[in-house]
Amino acid sequence: MHSLFEASDSLNMPFECFIFDSRNEVFPVRPHWHYFMEMIYMLDGTAEMFDSGTRYIVRSGDCILFHPKSIHSIFSADGAPLRYAVLKFDLSQLNLKPAYAPKLKELFKHAEQKQMPVFFSSSIASKMNSRTVFLSCVQEVTEKAYGYDLMIQSHLYSLLMQIVRQWQSLDFSIENEEMHANVSYDIDSITEYIEAHIRDPIQVSDIAQKCNMSYSCFAKKFHMIYGVSCKEYIVKIRIFKVEDYLLFTDFDLNYISQETGFSDCSHMIRNFKKYRGITPKQYRLRHSGRANAAASGHERSVQDEDQ
């Protein structure tokens, strides 16, 4: 029996950016839903897409957005192959916002409630620079150069702000008291709370309470969505933070353990070795060694060119 729910690995892959070619993939895309947002930019062909019962004809140059939890599907409108760019991402991971405006997740949830348009014709998509944004994100994921995740976020912010401005031209207001006052969390946005309190001794029971759920119900549903227990999710996020400190700072291990929420340095080392197979010190030495080798190699090539 076909399940409508599509799981995602937002812990290890907060962004998915790729080109879909119906000639090489399972197609058509049957009705499904997920907890992340999905956007599609049509490159070639004409698609018939359904979003929560509404039918759209999406042609080359058009763009469409699927809100989290919306049931959607994709077919060829004329039987010809389709080729389109896909962006999938967790809005909770995009936390940058000005002081005068609500968070993106709240904005888009409110836009969905107001039934703001999710389809953007080629003329509007062109004004939003959609093609460049989609293809740039795909390129960043493919190459994975230094800071690729930050580059993807910057591209996403640009596109999402263009969408909000397009909605504003249709009288969508961001000056909404409910959005500014909303500080509650649910199961698919609780990772935002975890990220914000990763330095604190947070407990799973406290997190479940934030979602107004019992511990057992929360634990079961969290594992279904994120593929790991909430406790393991917290540890993995802390490990990612430790890696950043090891790679980009000279702080000692005691300081890093405090800043990443571990009870003490030995606790951090034990967990780091469990998930990475080496100690934090070995990790730092290994990666700094590679950086030094790359730098010296670059110096030698420059000297060779000078000679």
Key words describing this protein structure:
Arc Repressor Mutant, subunit A; alpha+beta; 15% strand; 307 residues; disordered C terminus; 12 helices; 2 domains; Jelly Rolls
Strand count: 9
Residues in helix, %: 40-55%
CATH class of the largest domain: Mainly Beta
Number of domains: 2
Determine Rg (CA atoms, Å): 22 Å
Biggest sheet architecture? 5 strands, antiparallel
Average pLDDT level: 85
Order of SSEs, N→C?
EEEEEEEEHEHHHHHHHHHHH
* Helix-and-strand structural type: alpha+beta
How are the strands of the biggest sheet laid out side by side?
1-8-3-6-9
- Identify the CATH architecture of the largest domain: Sandwich
**Which parts are unreliable, with pLDDT below 50 for 5 consecutive residues or more?**
290-307
Distance between the termini: 68 Å
Please report which band the strand proportion falls in: under 5%, 5-15%, 15-25%, 25-35%, 35-45% or over 45%: 15-25%
Kindly report the name of the CATH homologous superfamily of the largest domain.
Regulatory protein AraC
Q: Could you name the CATH topology of the largest domain?
A: Jelly Rolls
Question: Count of helices?
Answer: 12
Shape: globular
Would you give an account of this structure?
Helix 9 crosses helix 11 and helix 9 packs parallel to helix 12 (280-306). The strands form 2 sheets. The chain has a 5-stranded antiparallel sheet with strand order 1-8-3-6-9. By secondary structure, it is α+β, with helices and mostly antiparallel strands. The protein has helices spanning 104-113, 122-127, 130-143, 148-168, 177-181, 190-196, 204-210, 215-226, 230-248, 253-259, 265-276, 280-306; strands at residues 15-21, 29-32, 37-44, 47-51, 54-58, 63-66, 72-76, 83-89, 119-120. The radius of gyration is 22 Å and the shape is globular.
